[in-house]
Amino acid sequence: MWDVESINIYHCLFVRVSKRNLKDDKSPTTSAFSNTPKDDDNLSSDWCKYSTPHSCRALIGKIKNLKTKGYKIPEDFYIWRFNVLLLEQLSLPQKVEHDPINNNPEIDGEPNNRAHTKIIGYKPTDSKQMNYAEYKVQIKRAGNWAIAPD
Amino acid sequence: MATGIARRDEKIRPRESGNFNWRNWDITRIQELPETPAKILYVVSKVETPTQIRLSICGINYIIDNRLSHIADAIRKSKELLTLKDDWDEDGANGINETIYVRAIETLIRYSDNILDTYKTAIKAPYISLGRDGSIDLDWSTPNNQLLITILNTGNFNLHYYGDDGNNNTVIKGTLEGLVINDDLSHWMRKL
Fold first, then answer.
1. I need a labelling partner for B20 at 20 to 30 A (CA). Which of A1, A135, B4, B117 fits?
2. Minimum distance, in Å, between the CA of residue B90 and any CA atom of chain A
3. Interface with B, mutate which of A19, A24, A134 (most B CBs under 10 A)
4. Peptide bond between residue A28 and the one before it cis (omega within 30 degrees of 0)
5. CA-to-CA distance for A77 and B60, rounded, in angstroms?
6. What is the pLDDT of residues B128-165, one digit of tens each?
């Protein structure tokens, strides 16, 4: 069992970006950092304390593709690096919460992951609370590529 | 020289009225276009007849000034989005909702046309993309300015916009619940 830890604001988080969420210039689309799953309240990431961009990408290969029933292909994803401090300083601040995944036995298609961290912070359809467009623009600026498309 | 469209379910605003600039516009023809007789009731154009581009999107015809040909190209390219079904990102995404797509395209056409008419400026074409939740983004990123218009995947028209100059010196943001032109947004968009 892994303890939930406090995340240092000077650390970074790695987020996977599907090749389907790339613009023609190979930058992420403005929707690349929406919630995963889409109906949840957070975006999944991996904390740099227990992960690297390459291990984050490799782990994708152990996640089930619900459509094909096979595993996802790591090369179909690139890795974006978020700075925790910048995330928390956004005009629509995000809450970062360590959320290690540790099942015993490990679930096929849902790999254990000590680095797993939630980026929590918005409800896109609640227009009275937050501006979804502002969120999308601001969150993209809080990071850059760790593993960029060729 | 600009042209525009009006849908049967909308009222044509009086010339002296509020936000949308209908000055110098005349209804020169009222016709049912043969391709979509059920959906288009009339085409509104200026007295002069400019070179026009006709676009057909989801059975609706749009007439666009040829100075906005790059906008028409972006719209044509965005038709690829109409092929995206549920789970298109293999991560549980919503497929395209045609109603939301049409709202996005009409928003783009109306604002680009209004800015051309009001400020004599042809704005750049945005990057048009589909979000996981079925929202559609119109994304303008220029060296000096960024504007994002998100049309939410909701029953009622629900549009969020945010723009700045990169240094947060000039910020515009808000929400809209209808297709009537917002003059402040239109004024800001002329910089794109």
1. A135
2. 6
3. A134
4. no
5. 36
6. 999 988 999 999 988 889 999 999 998 999 999 999 98
Residues B162/A141, Cβ–Cβ less than 8 Å:
no
| Closest Cβ–Cβ partner in A20, A31, A35 for B137 | A31
Q: Tell me the one-letter amino acid at B1.
A: M
Give how far Cα B163 sits from Cα of A23, B76, B160, B171, B184, Å: 19, 25, 10, 6, 12
The answer to whether the CB atoms of A67 and B93 lie below 8 A apart is no
Ordered alpha helix ranges (H), B14-89: 69-78
Helix B98-119, helix B69-78: angle, nearest 10? 170
Contacts of B153 in chain A (CB under 8 A): 125
pTM of the model: 0.80
Strands (E), chain B: 3-6, 25-29, 42-46, 52-57, 60-65, 127-130, 136-141, 146-151, 159-164, 172-176
Q: Report the residue from A24, A38, A134 with minimal CB separation from B133.
A: A38
Could you tell me which chain A residue has the CA closest to the CA of B137? Answer: A30
Give the torsion sign (CA, A16, A21, A24, A27): negative
DSSP state of A64: B
Instruction: Compute the residue count for chain B.
Output: 192
Measuring CA to CA, how many Å separate B99 from each of A129, B58, B87, B156?
24, 9, 19, 10
Contact A65, A72 (CB under 8 A): yes
Mean pLDDT of chain A: 89
Residue B87 pLDDT > 80:
yes
The residue among B80, B54, B78 whose CA lies nearest residue B65 is B54
State the Cα–Cα distance between residues A35 and B184, nearest whole angstrom. Answer: 31
B80, B86, B128, B129: which to substitute to probe chain A, counting the most A Cβ within 10 Å?
Answer: B129
